[in-house]
Amino acid sequence: MPAAGVVMIIAVVLIVLALVFYLVSTIVALQRITKGLDEAITGVVGIIEKSAPVDEVVTSINTNLDAGVDLLEGLLVKKAGLSDAVGLVAGLYPGAAGDGFRNFPESKETKAPRISEVYTKGTLTLARLGREAPIAAASPNGPALRNPSYGSTAARGLYPEIRQTRPAAMPRSPIIGTDSPVQYEPSDSPGVRKRMPVPVGAASTSQPEETEGGVVKSGLAFLRRLKSDD
Amino acid sequence: MTLEWIGDALLLLVVLPVVVYLLRGVLTAANCIVPSVQQIAAAATAGSKDLDATALLLTTQDQVQKTIEVAADYGGSLDVILDDAR
After folding, report:
1. N or C: which end of chain A has fewer CB within 10 A?
2. Would A197 be classed as within a structural domain?
3. Do residue B19 and residue A23 have CB atoms under 8 angstroms apart?
4. What is chain B's pLDDT, residue by residue, as a tens digit (86 residues)?
5. Residues of A in Cβ contact (< 8 Å) with B38
6. What is the pTM assigned to this prediction?
7. What is the C-alpha end-to-end distance of chain B, expressed in Å?
8. Which residues on neighbouring strands pair with residue A211, listed in sequence order?
C-alpha cells in the first residue's frame, strides 16, 4: 500500500474519532438538559396546580373585605359625620385622611379637624386602648396603653384609685341587709337622716334625746357654749 | 501520487480541524445550557414549595367571611344604639 493511502486512512480514522468523541459528549450534555427540564416542568406544573384556586379565593376575600369597608365607612360617617370621621381617621392614621373614604369622594376635600379639639382626652385615651396608634394629645408619640396579656390591669391603671396599688388593708365594703352591723332607715327627705347610724354593740342612741322646751339638750349645750364664747 | 498527498494534506490540515472546531462549539453550547436548566429546575421546585401555603388561603377566606359577619352584626347593633350625626 502506498504511503499516501496509509496517511489517508489515518486521517479518516482521526476524523471519525473526533466525531465520536464530540457527538457522544453532546449527547450526554443533552441528556442532562432533558433531565433538568423534566424537573423544571414538574415544578412548574406544581406551581400551576397550587395557584389555580388563588384567583377565586382572593377574589372572594376582596369581595368580603370590600363589603366590610363599605359597612364600616358608612357606619362611621353616619354616626360621626363626615368631618369628624375624617378627623378620627387622621388621628388614628396620620396622613390617611388625604386618601378620603372610598364611598365618599367628597371626603378628599374635607378638612380634617384636629381630633384633640373635637374629642375629650378620655375619648382619646379609650381610642388609644383599642388602637396601636397613639393619638392622645398629651403624648402623641407615646406607646399604646393596651397590654394584650393583661388588658384589665392596664385599663385599671388609668384610674387614680388607691386600690390599684394593692395596699395591705383596705376598708371593707359596707354590708347591707337586715343583719348588717350598721342599720339605716329611710330619711324624711332626701339628704336628711333621722339619726346617724350606730354600729351594733355601741351605745344605742335610738332612744329619743332628752329635750328642754322642744329643743334637744345637746343642741342647747352647744348654743350656750357659743354664747359664752361671745 | 501527488494528488493523493494533496488530499491527505487537506484531510489532516483542513477537514479535521474544521470538524473538530464545529463539534467543539456544539458541545460547548450544550454544556452551557446544563447549569441554566438546573437553576430553572431548582427555582421551579422552590417556587412550588413556596406555594404550599396557598392552602391556608381557604382558612383566610373563612376567617375574613366570619370577621365581616361579626362586624356587620356589631355594626347593626351600634347603628341601633348610637344616634346618627347631626
Report:
1. C
2. no
3. no
4. 788 899 989 989 999 999 999 999 999 999 999 999 999 999 999 999 989 888 899 999 999 999 999 999 998 888 888 778 76
5. 36, 39
6. 0.49
7. 118
8. A216
